[in-house]
Write a structure and sequence with these properties.
This protein is an alpha+beta fold. It contains 21 helices and 22 strands. It has a nine-stranded mixed sheet, sandwiched between helices. A five-stranded antiparallel sheet has the order 21-20-19-16-22. Strands 1-2 form a two-stranded antiparallel sheet.
Length: 636
């Protein structure tokens, strides 16, 4: 009999139904775990890549896996590439920060030692490391985007100028010239203006401390030039003889010291590029030669100091040496001698970011006192006429009814009967000098100019006071009245005809002699004019003219010497140059004729004589009351 064994019957596995909610929770846990592990790996790799720890840890990992450090670095970079992390960029950023800290060390030996050690840790040549650092300084400007509203607000802010309209604050300027052109002397003049707070050729400056890094001339020469400029010990000027580029850390320490006590350096002169690089082994034609310019740019940004670096020109009139010097500067000026006999100099603005527009500007150099007088753009012979136009606009904008109100170029040109292109050019120059302010009109890009404390048009003038309304010809609305010169040459187009012509009745009594000290720039001497004009008062008036009105002397008028300012006698015809008390205006020719018949403001009336002030030149003249025509009432 065969024994039988009971063999267990294997049942098929029981399949449980899938719970969607439980499966989703497991997936979320797995994803969270993966993200957490990625973060740990990311942080570990970032810490691993720090220069202070990388060499040690990478060596340990390489030994553990019996491979090279380079291979480990490549694997680490590959691992984090999908995480959006650039370890080399982080390493570069860390290097830049470290080098910046080392560059601030005053001890040159210690500074060089630390830079060499850092380069070894990074396993790269020191020159390559420093090249990367200086290129980082060039590209360190932040990326900032503005909305149009923010841009409008930004444009209304006043620019920071060292010399208004010429030299911005906190930049590096390269001034080059051949020997003997006077480049150092021009900067000394700028230094005098900055420390004394006085305008430079009429342009406002920002007052403050000046620092001279003088390595090109003996100290005794520098002191002599300071004495010529009358710079004594009470003025904030300090001189560092023999400064070299290796002392950049000491320069930064001094700038920081002055800034912390509230007396920042506004202008620093560096004389010259060749002299401060005397100890370097780098060629003048190498890009590396311009590294100090990048360092100065960095200091200018941080301390608001303007650096003017003196350099020599080559035979072509360009800055000598590497082009990197030119590229590293915000402003580049070239000075040259135009005429040695007259002392004329030509200043070429070759490169600018914010200052004077590129062009050629003429200066007169005075050997006796080492001063540079600005004469205008080269080839522009309208200097005297421009000065008259500028004075005329300034007087008009400073009148009570105009002060603080913004006017467009076209408005000012219509009020004064001037060419609008000339007015636009003169206003830009006045804005650069700081004698007028401006802001952009809300609609469009039109600039509006004003003086004094800014007011809104509603505060000071009505709609009917606009020049386009008051100067239009009623017979032809599209045609404006003639210019001031044509008004002066013709008696027939005055707003109120002269009673000599019989066009208006006599309706108003003569006003007594009085002054308008609030509306004129200098006081009228009542006794002098009253004593000099002894003609008896006329019973009946001959016009509606009052003190403060604008008038135009007729071409047939007579100028009276008694009570008038002296005229340039070289422009007077010979029969009247000796001792003439009266001169017929129509006997005079040229500019003086147009001046004497130009728009003037009444400052005094006595009997049948009237004393007026020319709105362009400020010269006072006395005429017969019957010889002037009313142009505009004071409050009209």
């Amino acid at each position: 009999m065969v024994a039988s064994h009971n063999t267990p019957v294997q049942s098929e596995p029981k399949v449980l139904p899938i719970n969607p909610q439980q499966d989703g929770m497991m997936m979320m846990e797995l994803q969270n775990k993966q993200r957490f592990e990625d973060e740990i790996l990311k942080k570990s790799l970032q810490n691993l890549w720090e220069p202070a720890h990388r060499k040690h840890y990478l060596t340990q990992i390489a030994r553990s896996y019996d491979t090279s450090i380079e291979t480990v670095e490549e694997i680490a970079q590959l691992l984090v590439s999908n995480m959006g992390v650039d370890l080399e960029e982080q390493e570069f950023t860390s290097m830049v920060q470290t080098v910046r800290q080392i560059e601030a060390i005053v001890d040159e030996g210690l500074r060089n030692f630390k830079l060499s050690r850092l380069a070894k840790r990074l396993r790269m040549p020191k020159t390559d490391m420093m090249n990367s650092y200086y290129k980082a300084l060039i590209n360190q400007a932040p990326f900032v985007d503005y909305t149009l509203d923010q841009l409008d607000q930004l444009c209304t802010q006043v620019k920071d100028w060292l010399v208004s309209g010429w030299i911005p604050q906190g930049i590096v300027m390269l001034l080059h010239a051949l020997g003997g052109a006077g480049k150092s002397l021009m900067i000394y003049e700028l230094i005098e203006c900055v420390v004394k707070g006085q305008p430079w050729n009429g342009y406002q400056v920002r007052q403050g401390r000046a620092l001279i890094l003088q390595s090109d001339e003996p100290v005794i020469v520098t002191r002599e030039r300071m004495q010529i400029r009358e710079l004594s010990r009470e003025y904030p000027v300090t001189v560092v003889p023999g400064w070299q580029v290796e002392n950049m850390a000491r320069l930064e320490a001094r700038l920081k010291e002055y800034a912390e006590i509230g007396d920042p350096v506004r202008l620093c002169m560096v004389d010259s590029v060749t002299a401060i690089n005397r100890n370097t082994l780098i060629s003048e034609n190498d890009t590396e030669y311009a590294r100090f310019m990048l360092q100065l740019n960095d200091l200018g940004d941080r301390y608001g100091c303007t650096f003017i670096v003196v350099h020599h020109s080559n035979s072509d009139g360009e800055s000598r040496g590497t082009k990197a010097l030119y590229n590293s500067a915000s402003e580049v000026w070239g000075l040259m001698v135009a005429d040695e006999s007259t002392g004329d100099r030509i200043l070429r603005v070759q490169k600018t970011r914010m200052g004077r527009p590129p062009g050629r500007y003429k200066f007169q150099f005075e050997e006796e006192n080492f001063t540079f007088t600005y004469l205008g753009r080269e080839g522009d012979e309208s200097g005297e006429e421009t000065a008259h136009t500028e004075k005329r606009i300034e007087l008009w904008l400073n009148e009570d009814e105009h002060r603080g109100i913004g006017y467009e170029v076209e408005e000012i040109a219509q009020y004064l009967g001037l060419n609008k292109n000339t007015v636009r050019k003169v206003l830009k120059e006045m804005w650069a000098k700081g004698s007028v302010m401006r802001y952009p009109k809300r609609q469009g890009n039109t600039m509006v100019y004003y003086v004094g404390e800014r007011r809104s048009p509603d505060e000071a003038r009505s709609t009917s006071d606009r020049p386009c309304d008051r100067h239009k010809n009623p017979a032809n609305p599209g045609k404006t009245e003639a210019s001031d010169r044509s008004i002066a040459k013709s008696e027939q187009i005055s707003l109120l005809q002269n009673p000599q012509n019989g066009d208006r009745p006599i309706t108003s009594p003569v006003k007594p002699l009085k002054n308008i000290e609030d509306d004129v720039d200098r006081e009228v001497d009542r006794t002098s004019i009253a004593g000099s004009i002894d003609t008896p008062l006329i019973e009946n008036a001959i016009d509606l003219i009052e003190v403060g009105d604008l008038v135009t002397p007729n071409a047939t008028s007579t100028w009276h010497s008694s009570g008038s300012d002296k005229l340039p006698w070289r422009d007077i015809p010979k029969p009247y140059t000796s001792s003439s008390k009266t001169i017929p205006v129509n006997a005079i020719e040229g500019k003086l004729f147009f001046e004497l018949t130009d728009v003037s403001r009444v400052i005094a009336i006595n009997g049948e004589r009237i004393k007026v002030r020319n709105q362009k030149t400020g010269r006072n003249s006395v005429y017969q009351l019957a010889d002037v025509s009313l142009l505009r009432k004071r409050n009209g």
